[in-house]
Amino acid sequence: MLQTYQDAMDWIYSFLDSEKKLPKNPTEFNLPRVKAMLELLGNPQLRYPAVIVAGTKGKGSTCAFLESIIRQSGLKVGFFSSPHLHSYRERMQINREPISQSQLVDLINEVRPLLEPLDPEIGSPTTYEIGVVLGLYYFATQAIELAVLEIGLGGRYDAINTVNPVLSVIASISYDHTAILGDTLAKIAYEKAGIIKQYVPVISTVQQAEAAEVIAQVAAEQTAPLFIAGMAGLQEQASGVVAEYPLVIVPDQLGLKGDFQMQNAQLATSAALLLRELGFPISDDAIRQGLATTQWPARFEQIANEPLTLVDGAHNGDSARVLLQALKQHYPNRPLTLVLGTSSDKDIQAIIQQLANSATHLITTCSRHPRALAPEKLAELIQQQVNRPVHQTNSVAEALTLAQQLTSAAGLICVTGSLFVAAEARETHGLAQPD
């Protein structure tokens, strides 16, 4: 019997942590094992409807927008996301309240004996799989009315994909985790499109042609009605009919900053409209209020003034490109101090190519995460592309101190390259406390 929150965390991390060392290919994830665990728990995921959201970038923001809309509608909504920024408890939220420490201890004490009959031949669960199972069970015990579930990696083989949703949602697809998901956009899109279920409506943001073709093909194979969330409105792929959004979606009316969030807001709004067609009581005003009040830390988030300091979890070339566009648009002519730290499994050259040339000062750093790339290695990669000095620091706190010394009052500090780095920057500024 676990007694403390630390006992709970020790138990969760006693399993193989696939987030610390990613598998070589997505088939190493074990959906039959997850299904077996859920069956031992009485299939809690069948006790409430759910929306599944996949994608390379924007899936977290899309989930946050959609959760906020559903909550503004007066529904009790569960939200599962990963990775967490500061506390493991962030992964399981109800009405945006993370599960408490005592609730997590009680949850594990209830679940652990139920999982004991798990067939050892099916293999030991991973930490991520255990977390997903706990989250799905927790939502069932709390009698939620709708769940928003963010895919962790890929889609087809992710543990979340054991859920049969009422709606599948696919955010923007670009290159990331190529060693696992494939080295072409089509291969990556195929893994993401694995969340499409037979006859279940699927909605996608506007994708690059290669990805869009794969999504359309998989949707057709599954006889799943396909919708596209575009600038003009929600388009039904089969008929071409466009339903206009119930409001004009513009950046200054969104709770999340950055023009790039418009695409995610359109996708969430489209999802809300389809949910309404499925019978969920989501009003136009709930959509408006939900978009305006959405909060999602470390996404183009300002954490300090003098000098102005932003954090953003951009962790691939495409998200770095979008970040740079937003910096230039919202903070033109401000000298940029770039604090960059990445995970070793990312397309680091693509991130550097997008960001490094625009910075007046370059600082490399690393998070405490096991997959973090060493600052000296990152500096070496930068100097292969940019013939300028690069400052190296061994912690995010050290990097921020140096950045503040190098940056004038009229300048701008941007901390990016990894959600783990962004999280530690927030903690350094006292915006959160890890537990």
UniProtKB/TrEMBL annotation:
Keywords recorded for this protein, A-Z: ATP-binding, Ligase, Magnesium, Metal-binding, Nucleotide-binding
Protein name, UniProt field: tetrahydrofolate synthase
InterPro entries (UniProt xref): Folylpolyglutamate_synth, Folylpolyglutamate_synth_CS, Mur-like_cat_sf, Mur_ligase_C, Mur_ligase_C_dom_sf, Mur_ligase_cen
Cross-referenced NCBIfam families: folC
Keyword Metal-binding assigned: yes
Catalytic activity annotation: (6S)-5,6,7,8-tetrahydrofolyl-(gamma-L-Glu)(n) + L-glutamate + ATP = (6S)-5,6,7,8-tetrahydrofolyl-(gamma-L-Glu)(n+1) + ADP + phosphate + H(+)
Entry similarity comment: Belongs to the folylpolyglutamate synthase family.
Residue ranges annotated for the Mur ligase C-terminal domain, each copy included: 299-418
Enzyme Commission number, as recorded: 6.3.2.17
PROSITE patterns: FOLYLPOLYGLU_SYNT_1
Family annotation (Gene3D superfamilies): Mur ligase, C-terminal domain (3.90.190.20), Mur-like, catalytic domain (3.40.1190.10)
Domain Mur ligase central: start-end pairs: 53-271
